[in-house]
Every structure is written in C-alpha cells, then in structure tokens.
C-alpha cells in the first residue's frame, strides 16, 4: 500500500517469541544471504558477453597508466629476478603466459595504451593483438573480468537482508512464510524519504525469465547510478517464478542480526487458522498501541481470494 510519501510493506511471520518481540521493539532480523530460501540468492551467475572490440574499449577506459605502470614494472622485475629485464617480445610473452591473472591484465592494458599513443584505433588494436583469432588470449582476458566480478560478489556474503512484500493477501506467502496461515503478517509503514536516507539500501526485486547480462563498463564505473544498478543485479534479481512475492528487500552492511527498522508497525493481520491462544498473545502486545490496526485474514466467499477484515473482540 502506498499513500502520499509513505509506503506500507509486509512481513509474514510465525507467531513465536521472536515475532512478538518484533511487535514490542520494532526490530527485525536481517538474514545472511546463504540463509535465504532461494539458492540463487546473492550468487546469480551473471554472464559477461563481450566482443574483442568491447574488451579493448573496456580496458582502454578503465585504467590510468600512472597507476598501473609502476605496479607492472615491479611485477616484471620480480619475474626477472633482478632490477631489470630484457625488453623483448619473447620476454613479454613468457611473462604474460606465466604470471598471475592480475598481471596479465596489466600487460594487456599497457599494450592498449601504448598502441593508442602510437595513434592506433580500437579496431587497429584488435587486429594487432589478434583478438579475433587468438581465442586463448581473449578467453584469459574475459576470465579476468569474471574473476573481478566474483570478488565483488563475495563482498555481499556478509550483508544482511530483510525481505518485505507489497502484498498482505498472497495465499502462497501465507502458506510458506505465515506458518501455514497460522501466523501473522506485520505491516510496516515507511516514510520513503527517510528510508532512502537511512543506512539501509532499499531494492525492489527484479523478476526475470533469463539470467542478467553484466555490462563491464557499468560494473567498474564508480558513478552512483551505475553502482546501484550493479547492486540490484547482484542482490535483487530473481527468477520470474517468484514474482507473486512483490518483494522489496532492505540490505544492511551486516547480517545475522536484529536491527531497528526506519518505519512504524501500523497493522497486524492474523492468519485464518491462527489459534485463539496466539490471537490473545498478539493482542496482549499491541493493545497499548492505539494506532496499530488489528485485523484477520479471511477467505472471500465464492472466490480464491483472501481479504483482511478488522477484528472485533
């Protein structure tokens, strides 16, 4: 539910001591990605598809020679086991084939900048480096890009995730997350501006039939829009079969911890099969909160739909 500059999102829970504590304190559990129920979470096998020309363009734009030249020089002297090395094509090729992926990338980038200074175009450089015909070299360069992606992806292993939904009436979520309709659905209303300004990253999940394709230019770009797009691809992309969840997730810097959320609990909806005992437990907690609505989810007669009715004692 969205109104003016506020939005209400929902969390389906079983009724237990932990969820009742959420009603009392407004703190919610941010799970680690590996504890979520979708095995693809935070590990989407993003594809990197590049032509040889796109590879050259990418590395030409990405690095400044003032940064990588000293690093490469040191690596080449270390490889030569001395304070100098022979500046021959044979030595450069041997160094390229025997060194680390990071150093291979530096050699490749250096050659690109060298040829650009000589006036060669991107097409000329592709031809000179024989990237169209040298499958091994091209594969190594693509692999270096994928490894950089994986290193960034690993950083998300320790993030925290709170999954919320725009829906409070989905039968599947009541069955899966609402303790087979014996639990409850907690409605939290957020001021959108305050949510955006908080330490949490709000991400609407993007549901796709196909796996996303990674754009390296955006991946290595440090502009805010590009960074947010990469975060969304990494941490908020799911298969289309999950679309019914209408999920917004809040991502925190740490996970496996209860955190205070920048919103207010404004409604509690009990499942159709919640017991009288649990009903009384929940009501005992929220009865002092006069602005919290207390409702119960019931089936609408003659339909497959659920509808939340205000509960009358």
TrEMBL record:
It comes from the Bacteria. This is DUF2971 domain-containing protein.
């Amino acid at each position: 539910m969205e109104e003016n500059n506020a939005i209400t999102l929902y969390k389906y829970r079983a009724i237990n001591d932990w969820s009742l504590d959420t009603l009392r304190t407004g703190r919610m559990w941010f799970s680690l990605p590996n504890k979520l129920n979708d095995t693809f979470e935070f590990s989407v096998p993003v594809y990197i598809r590049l032509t040889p020309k796109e590879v050259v363009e990418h590395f030409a734009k990405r690095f400044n020679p003032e940064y990588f030249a000293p690093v490469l020089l040191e690596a080449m002297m270390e490889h030569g086991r001395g304070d100098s090395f022979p500046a021959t094509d044979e030595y450069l090729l041997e160094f390229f084939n025997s060194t680390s992926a990071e150093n291979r990338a530096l050699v490749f980038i250096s050659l690109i900048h060298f040829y650009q200074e000589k006036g060669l175009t991107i097409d000329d450089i592709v031809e000179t480096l024989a990237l169209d015909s040298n499958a091994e070299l091209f594969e190594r360069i693509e692999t270096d890009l994928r490894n950089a992606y994986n290193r960034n992806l690993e950083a998300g292993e320790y993030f925290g995730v709170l999954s919320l939904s725009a829906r409070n009436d989905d039968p599947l979520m009541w069955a899966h997350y609402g303790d087979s309709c014996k639990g409850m659905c907690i409605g939290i209303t957020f001021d959108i501006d305050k949510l955006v300004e908080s330490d949490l990253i709000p991400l609407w999940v993007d549901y796709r039939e196909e796996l996303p394709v990674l754009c390296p230019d955006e991946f290595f770009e440090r502009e805010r829009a590009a960074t947010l797009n990469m975060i969304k691809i990494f941490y908020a992309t799911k298969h289309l079969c999950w679309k019914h969840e209408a999920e917004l997730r809040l991502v925190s810097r740490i996970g496996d911890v209860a955190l205070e959320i920048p919103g207010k609990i404004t409604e509690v909806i009990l499942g159709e099969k919640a017991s009288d005992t649990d009903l009384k437990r929940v009501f005992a907690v929220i009865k002092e909160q006069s602005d919290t609505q207390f409702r119960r989810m019931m089936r609408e007669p003659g339909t497959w739909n659920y509808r939340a009715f205000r509960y009358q004692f």
